[in-house]
Amino acid sequence: MCLLKPRCLLGPAFSEDMKLLFLACLSPKTGNHTTAERIRSHIESAGHTCELRDAAAFQSSAEVANLISGHPPFEGALAIHLFRAGSLLLDIQVPFGVIFGGTDINEDVKVEQKRVVMERVLLKARFAVAFTDKLKEEAKLFLLSQSCKIYVQPQGIQTEVSEKFCWTEFLRSSGLGVELMDELRVFLLVCGLRRVKDPLYLVDVFSEWHRENPLNVLVVIGPRIDPVFSVEVEAVVKKTAGVFLAGARSQRELHAAMKRCFAVVNSSVSEGMSAAILEAMDLGVPVLARDIPGNAAVVRHESTGLLYSSPQEFLHQSQRLLSDRELSERLVRNGKLYVEEHHSLGQERETYQRLVDTLLLAGRVKGLRVHRFAPEGSHAADGLATRGSSTFMKYRTSLVTSTCQSEPRK
């Protein structure tokens, strides 16, 4: 069995720090931004220099290639989202890795022009990271990828609540009146305002429910990412009883609002892995999530949360949650245990630090192939990273010619 050694055991030739370029979609106060910052922190805590840049700031891969070759040059690169960021790395001459964003595998693969580009990116990448087994399988199916490149590493979750957060002021600023404020049952839909999040999916059924019981309200909270769509959402919410729109908040304020609400809601058409769902579980808040592959990968129906496949089913599950205290307590208990077991921040840090070391090896030792295997009995015995095992990464190096790291097709 060939395993990759820990960084401290690789010897003097590999103990140097690396300058890394990290491209991601960095819209403020979004899950992508939070994920990128967290991964950057993991990389820099190992002593590397990691420069995080917004992919939207670049017009072409040539611009990125010029940046990479500057003085001092970057020695490697990383990108979140195979198309939006990964495509910008096709012309660079240093090794790079990619992280699936979710919409790249769930949505962009449906467009042939994008799919072809993403396939080239994946072929050239030294490694790829999927948040779930489902994303990995979809990538293998649609992008004809080599499975030995794809590692499954769930997002690490850490929550922190703002001590200065005022729930009453939050509700008032969102448009709610002061009457019976302490008795309200607030369902919090956490999402940036863009179509893939489908924030209007539940509006009609929730408004009707609110008319029957005014104590039930839906608050949509998140940044206005798509300006045109945001105007549409604002117009609908303004004329809809029981539905309110809160502006974007800092991560700590968002977590404070989540902790005070009755339940956190997800209505997305597509998800890679919803950080908001996992953060709600960590905060001890019940979750109601739309039944899509990305959500079903982390929400086990009636165990860690409730899944729904239509607005009417959302209403039914919400009513169950209101009337069944035992169900609510079970969801909260199991959800928190699930996050603690499968979404360890320390395990995520270890994974990315060691994957970055494979870039360092690839850039400095020609023909070095790095192998990584999971422990006996894990679900990734074929050598892929897994979730749920604190010992899943043991390492050593193998000086053999790589057959896995193919170049893009000509």
Could you describe the 3D structure shown?
GO terms for molecular function: glycosyltransferase activity. This is Glycosyltransferase 1 domain containing 1. InterPro entries: Glyco_trans_1, Glycosyltransferase_G1. Residues 183-336 form the Glycosyl transferase family domain. Keywords: Glycosyltransferase, Transferase. This protein is α/β, with parallel strands linked by helices. The protein folds into 2 domains: 7-156 and 344-398, 3-Layer(aba) Sandwich (Rossmann fold); 167-342, 3-Layer(aba) Sandwich (Rossmann fold), CATH 3.40.50.2000. It contains 14 helices and 14 strands. The strands form 3 sheets. The protein has a 6-stranded parallel beta sheet, sandwiched between helices. The protein has a 6-stranded parallel beta sheet with strand order 9-8-7-10-11-12, sandwiched between helices. The protein has a two-stranded antiparallel sheet with strand order 13-14. Strand 5 (127-130), helix 5 (133-143) and strand 6 (150-152) form a beta-alpha-beta unit. Helix 10 (275-283) crosses helix 13. It is elongated, with a radius of gyration of 22 Å. It starts with 18 loop residues before the first strand and ends in a 12-residue tail after the last strand.
Topology record:
Layout: E1 19-24, H1 31-44, E2 49-54, H2 61-68, E3 76-80, E4 96-99, H3 103-106, H4 112-124, E5 127-130, H5 133-143, E6 150-152, H6 167-173, E7 185-190, H7 203-212, E8 216-221, H8 227-238, E9 243-246, H9 251-260, E10 263-266, H10 275-283, E11 287-290, H11 293-296, E12 306-308, H12 311-323, H13 325-342, H14 345-364, E13 369-370, E14 397-398
Parallel strand pairs: 1-2, 1-3, 3-4, 4-5, 5-6, 7-8, 7-10, 8-9, 10-11, 11-12
Antiparallel strand pairs: 13-14
Helix pairs in contact: 10-13
